[in-house]
Amino acid sequence: MSYLVLDRVCKSYGTAGKRTEVLTNVSLSVERGEFVAIVGPSGSGKTTLVAMIAGLMKPDSGTIVIDGKKVKGTGLDRGVVFQNYSLLPWFSVFSNVLLAVEQACPDWPAPRRKQHVERYLRMVNLWPARDKRPAELSGGMRQRVAVARALAMEPNMLLMDEPFGALDALTRGTLQDELIRIWDDNRRTVLMITNDVDEAILLADRIVPLSFGPQATLGPEIIVDMDRPRPRQSLHRNADVKRLRNSVTEYLVHSRRKPASRSLGSSTTPLGIGAAP
Ligand SMILES: Nc1ncnc2c1ncn2[C@@H]1O[C@H](COP(=O)(O)OP(=O)(O)OP(=O)(O)O)[C@@H](O)[C@H]1O
Ligand SMILES: [Mg+2]
């Protein structure tokens, strides 16, 4: 059985009579050790999907099963990197990561936990900032703490909601390489949300596009049948990359042309949809 199985998941927001179905019939299977990227436009429901898989929110209908068990809440089996960092503001960078490690590895002696935190903070180049609080960091630095925190928990599955979106190109590249190295070493299951098609091609085994909303749903999977490691420098010249990029963007552009007024109620609130990919 697949490690993660979503079966016809639907989710609406709003009150009775003004409900908008954001996600409809989202079905997906992710194998253990697989790296899957979901690529979707802004406002399509990516964070909503992550929140449901993380166990922070329930689907209206449909099921989410991880490792054979229905998701009923949050769990240490999932390391989540949220889009908005979600760090504890009154704790230092070091403590933010340490608290997660304490939760994930309660049996470890204190020195081992601290070494572990140091390793991951060095990995994201934040060791010099270890005593700062989140408010003293740039957005990109906060995101790196959130990435370090999730990685340091060494969860079975990494669930990442646009983890590198706020980073400069250099840091993004470094963290993408680190993520692939860690994934390759440990073969954890990774589900990554991104709106960057090239990032998905660089990292994932499989890309699943999420259509424009409302009533967004997953499109046909696109297998990234390219050898690893994938050198980013030559990606833009690679014919396979062009073909994959076209497959994803064609689906997304096509999904945008669907009739726009598919809300369940009378809501006319425009969705926060970004530029067409
Ligand atoms: N708590 C909420 N109550 C009502 N509507 C919501 C709520 N959360 C999200 N929405 C709406 O649901 C839709 C999907 O939101 P979501 O944040 O999941 O999109 P997203 O794909 O993550 O967008 P982005 O790429 O900008 O992060 C949007 O139209 C948003 O306005
Ligand atoms: Mg989002």
The backbone outline, from C-alpha atoms, is globular
Rg estimate, integer Å: 19 Å
Estimated helix fraction = 25-40%
Strands of the widest sheet, in order across it, are: 6-7-8-3-9-10
Beta fraction: 15-25%
Hetero ligands:
adenosine-5'-triphosphate, magnesium ion
Unreliable sequence segments: 259-277
CATH architecture of the largest domain: 3-Layer(aba) Sandwich
The CATH homology group name of the largest domain: P-loop containing nucleotide triphosphate hydrolases
Task: Report the CATH topology name of the largest domain.
Answer: Rossmann fold
CATH C-level class of the largest domain is Alpha Beta
Total strand count, please?
10
| Content-based structural category | alpha/beta
Continuous helix count: 8
Domain unit count: 2
The overall average pLDDT, rounded, is 89
Order of helices and strands: EEEHEEEHHHEHEHEEHH
What's the story with the biggest beta sheet? Answer: 6 strands, mixed
Distance between the termini: 34 Å
Account of the 3D structure:
With 277 residues, the protein is α/β, with parallel strands linked by helices. The protein has helices at residues 46-54, 93-104, 110-123, 139-152, 169-186, 197-203, 232-235, 239-256; strands at residues 4-13, 20-30, 35-39, 61-66, 69-70, 78-81, 157-161, 189-194, 206-209, 222-223. It folds into two domains: 28-77 and 158-277, P-loop containing nucleotide triphosphate hydrolases (Rossmann fold), CATH 3.40.50; 87-155, no CATH class. Helix content is 35%, strand content 20%. The protein has a six-stranded mixed β-sheet, sandwiched between helices. The two termini are 34 Å apart. 41% of the residues are buried. Bound molecules: adenosine-5'-triphosphate and magnesium ion (MG).
